From TrEMBL:
The gene is rpiA. The active site is at E112. This is Ribose-5-phosphate isomerase A. InterPro entries: NagB/RpiA_transferase-like (IPR037171), Ribose-5P_isomerase (IPR050262), Ribose5P_isomerase_typA_subgr (IPR020672), Ribose5P_isomerase_type_A (IPR004788). GO terms for biological process: pentose-phosphate shunt, non-oxidative branch.
Length: 234
């Protein structure tokens, strides 16, 4: 994920990642997202650290923690930093206008949402293919659930109108999150009221968190073939 890449879209995502990393100022506490786009941002922050920028990070996954540590980025926790200045992360879908999100195809949604909720500003970096008119158009909504009773939790998610699939890895083994939980990928199709759906999912016993992120985004930096665009919530 580091270094130069000849894929033009990766180069565009790298520019979006660098633009977001440029928002980090001396002394900040920063939430470090997860995924291929966030990894480019962590690389950019590693370069800024090597140039002398002082900041600390809270990672949203073990993967991002490992990458940040390798780059010499100082990692802290919520004990010393209960509030963050900025969090930067990728997304699987971004709804035009509202800037509501679906996240979690990489399985990091719980820590990502905790970090986003603790940040004064939450900046999202995506390529233009992630923009949709309605969330759910392409991506399922990942829902993190406790292993105990997941079948019952899945049935209740189905009653909300979803087709529910227990996430497995390529080798067929269960996908287990950094927190030791399971992911149910819930296909709803285009979602008319994401905020109401996020609330309904959150009320089901056994659900830990959903990948619907509504009313959280401060800004989205979109990498497109015509360059970068910055979107601010309407
Ligand atoms: O759990 C994973 C995260 O929500 C990612 O931020 C999301 O899946 C986007 O990842 P990528 O930048 O690799 O498309």
């Amino acid at each position: 994920m580091s270094g130069q890449n000849s894929d033009p879209m990766v180069e565009l995502k790298r520019r979006a990642a660098e633009e977001a990393a440029a928002m980090v100022q001396d002394g900040m506490a920063v939430g470090l997202g997860t995924g291929s786009t966030a990894a480019l941002m962590i690389d950019a922050l590693g370069r800024r650290r090597a140039e002398g920028l002082r900041f600390v990070g809270i990672p949203t996954s073990e993967r991002s923690a490992e990458q940040a540590r390798a780059l010499g980025i100082t990692l802290v926790d919520f004990g010393s930093h209960p509030q963050l200045d900025l969090a930067i992360d990728g997304a699987d879908e971004v709804e035009r206008g509202s800037l509501d999100l679906i996240k979690g195809l990489g399985g990091a949604l719980l820590r990502e949402k905790i970090v986003a909720a603790a940040a004064r500003r939450f900046v999202v970096i995506v390529d233009e293919g992630k923009l949709v008119d309605h969330l759910g158009s392409r991506s399922p909504v990942p829902v993190e659930v406790t292993p105990f009773g997941w079948e019952s939790t899945a049935r209740q998610l189905g009653e909300l109108g979803a087709r529910v699939a227990l996430r497995t890895k390529r080798d067929g083994e269960l996908f287990v999150t950094d927190g030791g939980n399971l992911i149910l990928d819930c296909t709803f199709g285009p979602i008319a009221h994401p905020k109401a759906l996020e609330a309904s999912i959150g009320q089901i016993v056994g659900v830990i968190e959903s990948g619907l992120f509504t009313s959280r985004t401060s800004e989205v930096i979109v990498a497109g073939r015509d360059g970068l665009t910055r979107l601010v919530a309407a």
